[in-house]
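[Solved] Which block belongs to which protein?

Original post:
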Amino acid sequence: MKIRLFTRKDSTQIQSVARESWRYAYEGLIPQQTQVDFLLSVYNEDALMKGLSTSVLFVAEEKGEVIGFVHFSLINIKKEIELGALYILPRFHRQGIGTALLKAMFDYFKGIRKITVSVVMQNDAAIDFYHSKGFKQVGEMNDSIYGFSIPTIVMEWGSNTRPNV
């Protein structure tokens, strides 16, 4: 497996990873049409390329296939990061790919002080993953995607704890 920075040619595969990951994680939690609408707006090639002006996207690649990605943004000069997405194709779960992508993020931004991530409240696998990496729940909120309300927890990793990557 290889971790590298995203390039324009990865756009179609990124869309596919996001679509399959959402279908797997949010079946029965987020309506199918809401998923489709959101993913088409966020993971089309133009949106991905435009987003790179303020964020970083690493992909995990296996034999030329993008099998996962992490998308994050530096939100201030204090080296605080918002983790926007960490998606792995379901057939590659529990193989260390998410950990490798987080490590790439830590290596890219030396001296990270804080990372914040929002996780759908019923996405137990993601919550367990972030807990295992040293993240703690710091709040709850209702997120909204195209008018659909999604109970979400806010998790945070701080530099006072060692990341488990």
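(Second protein starts here: sequence line, then its structure tokens.)
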Amino acid sequence: MNETMICAVGNVATQPVYRDLASGPSARFRLAVTARYWDREKNAWTDGHTNFFTVWANRQLATNASASLAVGEPVVVHGRLKVRTDVREGQNWTSADIDAVAIGHDLSRGTAAFRRTNRAETATSPPQPEPNWETPPVDSSSVSGEQRPQPAVVA
């Protein structure tokens, strides 16, 4: 299936609207994406044209997006681009929508604190032991480098 996947970096322009539909949760918000370029005459960065996209999220992504996003926050949206043309009251309208696969805060412009949502399957699964990420110490008596440390075995 040929789909146009897009990754858009911009700001949340409208408060997310959450709806609980028969097919599952759905949320939408407008995303403003402004191009910036270096203006040699002014010797400064300048804002270019702003594109607006309607971002659609479904199921758990809709629930999490509506609880996490606010107007003005910088976000990264990855999803399927849908360009639609319509005739309303004799006028042609074109809209660009993104059917989101993933949405996240843009960490190049701020910080975020991630909180995992409580889901039924995570509550019933047994806790997993934390893996040992420490590198075993190198034996300083082996100058030639022939002896190598053995990896730690985690039981």
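Accepted answer:
You had them paired correctly. Confirming on the second one: DSSP finds two helices and six strands in the chain.
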